[in-house]
Each structure stands twice: as C-alpha cells, then as structure tokens.
C-alpha cells in the first residue's frame, strides 16, 4: 500500500516537472524562432517568459542577444552578466560581454580580489565548498579519535587542506555577496542625481550598460557608485545581477 | 428693449459727408388704428459713433413707448462710403388723434443737425397695414450650455408681394454666440397665420454661453432694392424670444470631453503602419461624423503618453502624428474622447482605442571591424549565435549566500562532528572514572527500589517491604566498596554508618531488615507483619544513603 502511494506521488512529481520543463522549452523555442524571424521585441518577451518559469543561462544569453538586436545595450549586458552568474564557463556570454563592452566603449565592473575569485565558480558552488571543506577538516580531526584509530599524517594533511579550502571559500562567498550588489544601467542617458528625488539635481548621465555598485536604497532610488562618481538613480534604471 | 450699439469695423469715411449731414423722421405706418403699433424712425446720414443722441425722446403721452433699437448700415459696395444710422422707437397709439413728435436738434459729426417733426394719425376707421417686423425662429428652445442651435430670421414680403433681402443682421441679447461664418440666405414660402407667403430667410447657428433664461431678438436693415428711386434702407426689429439653457451635468462627465454636444460617430481609426522604428512617425487618421454642424467640433485633447510623442493635425483635421520614443511601446495610446447627447441627456464615450504596433529599436552593431578588435586572435569581434538549449538552470538568481537557512545547513555536518567529539571526550572521562558510572547506576536502581518499596507499603505487603528495603540498602552501599549489590550483607551496610548509628536505632533497623530478609530463606516462616512500622526509619536511612551517592 505504501509503495502504491509512493509511486503515485512520484508520478505526480514527474508530471509537474515535465510540464514545467515543456512550457519552458516552448517559450525558449518560441523565442528562438522569433529572433530568427527578426522579431526581436517579441523574442525578448518569449525569453523573459522562459526565464520566469526556469532561469537558465541559455535563455539569458539569448535574451541578451535579442535585447542587443533591438538596441537595448544595458539590458543585453545585464542578461549576459546574469548568464555568467549562473554559468561562469558559458563562452557565449563571455564573448558577447567582451564584444558589447568594446562596441559600446564600456568598462568591466571593478572587482576586489575575492570578488574576482568568486567568478571562477557559480555562487552556489562556493557555499557547498565551504560546507564540505569545513566538514572534511572537522571529520579528519574528530573521526580517528572516535573510532580509536591512531592519528596519522595524511589525516592531519587532509584536515589542513580542508581548513585551507574553507578559509578561501569564505572569502569567495564574501565576494559573491559583494558581486550581488553590482548592477548595470539599463537605459541610455540615465540621470544620476544628487538627491533621491525626481527633482534632484542631475550630477551626470550614465550610459546604458555602465556598471555600478549599489550601496543603499531609499524609496524608489538606489545610491550607487560608478567608477568615477556616486549618486542616486531610479531603481528601474539599474538592473542588479541577482534580481 | 434698450437701444443696442453695433460694433462694426470703421470703414473709410468720405470727408465731404460732414458738410451734408441731415436727418429724416417719420412714423411707419403714418396712419394706424388705436391699439396698433407704429414705428418712429429717425435716419441720420452719419456714423453712429459721431451722433450724440438724446437719452429720451419727448413723445405725446397718448403714444405708449415700446422697444427701441438703433443700427448703423454699412455700404461696402459703395465708394465712397455713405453712412446711415437709424434710430427705432416702437409706439402704440392709445387713442385716436394726430400725434406729433416735434423737431429737435442733435449733434452729429461736430455739427448741429435738425431732426424734423413727424406725425402719426390714429383713426378708428383707418385702413392700415401693420408695421413690418422681423420674425425669429429657433430650432430648439430648451438647450444645454454650449449646445448649438439653428436660428432663422424671416422677412415676409411687404405690401404688393415685394420681396426684400436683409443686410447687417444683428442679434441682440446676452449669453450666446452666433456664427457669422455659417449663414445661409434663401427665399422660401412660409406659413404665416395660415397664409402661405414668400419670405426672405436668413439662417445661422447660435451657441448659448450662459445658463438660465436668455432673451434674444434680431435687427436688420432691408436691402433697399425698391423699384424706382434711390434705395431705402429700413431698420427692422423682431420681438424677443426666450430660450432656456441648462448647465451640463458635471458628475457624469466622461474623460476626454472637449465640449462636443450633439450626436457623433467615429470611423475605426486607421494607422498608416503598424510596424515602425523608434523616432519614426506614423499617422493615425480618425474621422468623426455627427448630426448637425461640425464646424465648432473640438477634436480630442492630446493624451499624456510616456512612450509616445503625439502631434495633432491642424484643425479641422482630426488626425494625429504618433512618434514612438521607445521600442517598448506595444500599442498606440488610447485617446479619450466623449460627447454629450442632449437628446439622451448624458455623455457617451467615443474613446479612440489603442492599436497594436511593433516598434523596432535603434540598431546596434553586430560585428566590430578588425581595427577595433584588440583580441589576441585578430578575428573580428561579433555577436555570438543564439544558444540552442536553455543550458544550466537555477531556481533563483539570488545567491544562496544570502539565504540564512542554507548557510546554517552547510555547517550542520561540522557541528555534528563537534558534538561527536564532545561525546567522545565524555566517554573517555567516564572510562577513567568508573565510580561516577556506578553511583549513577546505583542512584537509578535505588529510585526503582524505593518506588517498589512504596507500593509494598501501600499494599500492606510486609514481605515485599522487607525484600525491597534490603535491596535498596544493598544498592546504596555497593558503589562505596565497590561491589555488586547482591553481594552485600548486613555488615557491609552497617559499615557505611558511623559508630553511633551502628549501635543506635538506625543500626537496629538495618539488622531487623536484613534478619527478616534472610529469614525468608528459612524453612520455618517468621511473622514479618510488624516490620511495616519500620517504614519511616527505612525512609530516613535510604535518604541519608542516597545523599552519599
């Protein structure tokens, strides 16, 4: 009887999962067809729907391409950065970012060493590495004693390596948290204001795709720091990588 | 009716006319029956502004005054210009007789001009023709504020079926506006008091601009085209008519109301193209139809649209030029419009609906020239192809590092190891100190025996009481030796007591308990029922022994 219930639940789970995947693929395939037909706004909308159902690096890469083709440099760069956030090894996202920054004469975001290190792997991987390495180190130290085994050199080495990885992954995790505050200007000539109000004095205008670091939020505005200046920008004009 | 001042553009005046300013005065008709109306007319060949006309005319008291008017005739077809101003007074003769308004002097163009006397004969048997008047007709008498209505001025044929046209038509009264550009003149046969007569018709459109009751009259000059002799221009006036004007309801007013009153229809809007680039204009053609006059139709106001720049066509066209400012625009903006239907007494929505469009953005390069390329390979940088598959997926872009529970989950194994290490330390400690374990076990066993002891007392089971009391004593002293509790004898228990207790009541109690317990193994049964009285002493002893554990 128990098995019957288990089989029933498993069947439902599979059906739901398969349905979601099919819908996602429908939007993705639709986006591909529309983009190839030159209907870029519609293609971008289809890729966005695909991402809403299941966030994937491929859909983000294609969304970036559709946005670029319809003239939205900021949205394109944000999409490719998000694709790299999911899969740092995605060659399309990497080459498109390089191409877009060169075409639009934009700089890459300035990263600190631990933030740069955090780009080597997907963000979630660093968390698992931290947990696993700490457990490995603790296990290497504790388990021989519990099992009344004599402590050996390799166990000590394993513990040391585990702690080493743990410490590095802590830095990388901090880097991920820091990178989560990086955003990209979405619209051309986005005004950077002195105060977080619509009537605030405009310090300068930012180019679409220009990177900025979000420092704090007030109302409908982000206080950001770009490479050269700081100021307030409307929230809908800055896309954060992790949103 | 008060005399009206007609404002007209001042034409060029012939200077010689100042030398020949003269005035004529007459009653029209000169003979009337009592109770009939007659018009006292004074014509001066000078401009109205140049005449200092007295406020009052001294007429015989038998002539009851009625409405008065004045008007100036312009003669644009004549050169040089000969002005003519006519003063109009309506009188009703009360009694028969001859009544005269004597001559008087006025000032005109800086010189004194004599107005000659004029007389009217009132006789009961006089054959008369009534004074000529204009007739006024309105298409509606109960109107809403701003509702256009048609006005007809009728001049029936004069005596001898002579038809005359009208000129310098002027409407008197306040709170309305007539449209001088929408006029129509015609000759029609009209029914007057049951008689069909040809008449000159002057039609125009008026619009009330004030709510309430409005009195409207009209005055005009006849065209003077009489056969033979010089033309004679006669100022005619109508009786005033009343219209009632109601204000428009404001509570139910719909968005986009621009003052359109009537019944209107709109053809489906036509957009010149539904696919356009950012900044590229498209024309939205809208055609309105309506019942009645559309000359004063005000097209819909421009809506505020974030994604569009909207330019209205020059009136009277009712189209719009739409320029998309972003490719995020998916449809043209809805243009709210409504009109008020006076027949239904309510507003109707005629909003121009949005039309779907595809806006293509400004193109960005898809490939950079080789010169701009700084890549090591030297190959031109270009946009990659589309990713054929969705690739790696994640549940959310929000990093797991910002989820507290997941971070804690990562440390659970390490915390498990720590707990295991602490347990191992404790285990090693207890291995080094077995007396702690023995005492703990003894305390646990003692609690069990005490419970059984209590049950035996409650049940009055003396044998059980003795057995459990002896066991409890053995358990409580075993960890001190150390030895197994079952190996304990009375002496071992006594050894745990001090000297005084051994020889006192406590020692005696121990001995009795053990003696009774040992006696249970004897062949002859001994009476143990009285041993239940030792319960308080045993309880106190066990409490003391437990403290030592």
Radius of gyration of chain B: 62 Å
Count of DSSP E strands of chain B?
31
CATH homologous superfamily of the largest domain in chain A? Answer: Tetratricopeptide repeat domain
Detail the poorly predicted runs of chain A: 13-22
Report the CATH architecture of the largest domain in chain A.
Alpha Horseshoe
Largest sheet of chain B: 5 strands, mixed
Number of helices of chain B: 7
CATH fold title of the largest domain in chain B? Four Helix Bundle (Hemerythrin (Met), subunit A)
Strand order within the widest sheet of chain A?
Answer: 7-6-5-2-8
In the CATH hierarchy, the architecture of the largest domain in chain B is Up-down Bundle
| CATH topology (level 3) name of the largest domain in chain A | Serine Threonine Protein Phosphatase 5, Tetratricopeptide repeat
**Shape designation of chain B:** elongated
CATH class of the largest domain in chain B: Mainly Alpha
- Mean pLDDT reading of chain B: 85
Q: What is the 3D shape of chain A?
A: globular
β content of chain B, as a range?
A: 25-35%
String of helices and strands of chain A: HHEHHHHHHEEEEEEE
Described by its quaternary structure, the protein is heterodimer
Our count of domains of chain B comes out at 4
Just give the CATH class of the largest domain in chain A: Mainly Alpha
Gist of the model:
The complex is a heterodimer of chains A (243) and B (549). With 243 residues, chain A is an alpha+beta fold. Chain A has eight helices and eight strands, in the order H-H-E-H-H-H-H-H-H-E-E-E-E-E-E-E.
């Amino acid at each position: 009887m128990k098995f019957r219930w288990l089989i029933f639940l498993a069947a439902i789970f599979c059906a739901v999962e398969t349905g979601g995947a099919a819908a996602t693929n429908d939007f993705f395939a639709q986006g591909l067809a529309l983009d190839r037909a030159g209907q870029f706004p519609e293609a971008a909308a289809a890729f966005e729907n695909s991402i809403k159902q299941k966030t994937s690096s491929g859909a983000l890469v294609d969304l970036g391409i559709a946005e670029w083709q319809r003239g939205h440099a900021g949205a394109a760069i944000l999409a490719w950065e998000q694709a790299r956030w999911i899969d740092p090894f995605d060659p399309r996202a990497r080459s498109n970012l390089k191409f877009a920054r060169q075409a639009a004469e934009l700089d890459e975001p300035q990263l600190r060493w631990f933030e740069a290190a955090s780009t080597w792997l997907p963000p979630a991987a660093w968390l698992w590495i931290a947990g696993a390495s700490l457990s490995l180190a603790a296990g290497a130290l504790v388990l021989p004693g519990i099992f009344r085994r004599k402590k050996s050199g390799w166990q000590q080495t394993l513990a040391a390596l585990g702690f080493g990885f743990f410490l590095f992954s802590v830095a990388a995790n901090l880097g991920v948290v820091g990178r989560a505050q990086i955003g990209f200007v979405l619209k051309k000539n986005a005004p950077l204001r002195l105060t977080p109000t619509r009537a605030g004095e405009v310090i300068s205008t930012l180019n679409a795709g220009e990177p900025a670091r979000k420092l704090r939020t007030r109302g409908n505005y982000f206080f950001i720091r770009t490479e050269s200046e700081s100021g307030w920008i409307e929230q809908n004009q800055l896309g954060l990588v992790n949103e | 009716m008060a005399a009206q001042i007609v404002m007209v553009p001042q034409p060029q005046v012939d200077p010689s006319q100042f030398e020949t300013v003269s005035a004529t005065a007459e009653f029209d008709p000169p003979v009337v029956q009592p109770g009939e109306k007659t018009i006292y007319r004074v014509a001066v060949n000078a401009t109205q502004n140049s005449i200092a006309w007295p406020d009052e005319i001294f007429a015989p008291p038998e002539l009851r005054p009625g409405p008065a008017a004045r008007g100036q005739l312009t003669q644009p077809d004549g050169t040089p210009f000969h002005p003519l101003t006519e003063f109009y007074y309506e009188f009703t003769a009360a009694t028969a007789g001859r009544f005269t308004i004597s001559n008087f002097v006025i000032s005109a163009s800086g010189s004194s001009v004599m107005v000659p006397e004029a007389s009217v004969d009132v006789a009961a048997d006089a054959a008369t023709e009534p004074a000529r008047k204009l007739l006024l007709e309105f298409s509606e008498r109960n109107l809403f504020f701003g509702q256009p209505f048609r006005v007809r001025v009728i001049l029936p044929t004069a005596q001898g079926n002579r038809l005359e046209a009208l000129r310098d038509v002027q409407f008197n009264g306040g709170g309305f506006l007539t449209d001088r550009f929408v006029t129509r003149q015609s000759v029609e046969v009209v029914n007057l008091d049951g008689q069909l007569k040809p008449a000159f018709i002057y039609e125009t459109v008026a619009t009330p601009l004030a709510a309430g009751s409005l009195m409207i009259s009209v005055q005009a000059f006849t065209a003077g085209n009489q056969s033979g002799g010089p033309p004679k221009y006669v100022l005619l006036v109508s009786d005033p008519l009343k219209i009632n004007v109601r204000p428009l309801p404001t509570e139910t007013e719909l968005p986009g109301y621009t003052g359109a009153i009537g019944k209107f229809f709109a053809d489906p809007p036509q957009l010149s193209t539904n696919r356009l680039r950012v900044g590229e204009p498209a024309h939205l053609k809208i055609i309105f139809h309506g019942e009645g006059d559309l000359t004063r139709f005000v097209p819909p106001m421009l809506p505020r649209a974030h994604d569009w720049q909207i330019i209205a066509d020059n009136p009277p066209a009712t189209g719009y030029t739409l320029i998309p400012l972003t490719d995020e625009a998916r449809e043209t903006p809805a243009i709210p419009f409504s009109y008020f239907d006076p027949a239904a007494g309510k507003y109707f929505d005629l909003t121009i609906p949005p039309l779907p469009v595809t806006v293509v953005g400004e193109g960005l390069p898809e490939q950079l020239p080789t010169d701009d390329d700084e890549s090591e390979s030297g190959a031109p940088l270009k946009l990659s192809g589309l990713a054929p598959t969705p690739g790696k997926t994640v549940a959310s872009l929000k990093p797991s590092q910002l989820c507290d529970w997941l971070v804690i989950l990562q440390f659970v194994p390490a915390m498990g190891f720590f707990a295991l290490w602490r347990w191992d330390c404790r285990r090693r400690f207890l291995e080094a100190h077995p007396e702690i374990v023995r005492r703990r076990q003894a305390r646990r066993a003692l609690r069990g025996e005490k419970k059984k002891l209590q049950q035996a007392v409650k049940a009055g089971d003396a044998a059980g009481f003795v057995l459990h009391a002896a066991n409890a004593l053995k358990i409580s002293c075993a960890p001190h030796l150390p030895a197994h509790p079952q190996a304990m004898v009375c002496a071992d228990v006594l050894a745990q007591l001090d000297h005084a207790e051994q020889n006192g009541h406590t020692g005696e109690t121990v001995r009795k308990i053990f003696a009774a317990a040992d006696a249970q193994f004897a062949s002859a049964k001994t009476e143990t029922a009285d041993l239940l009285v030792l319960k308080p002493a045993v309880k106190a002893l066990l409490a003391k022994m437990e403290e030592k554990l």
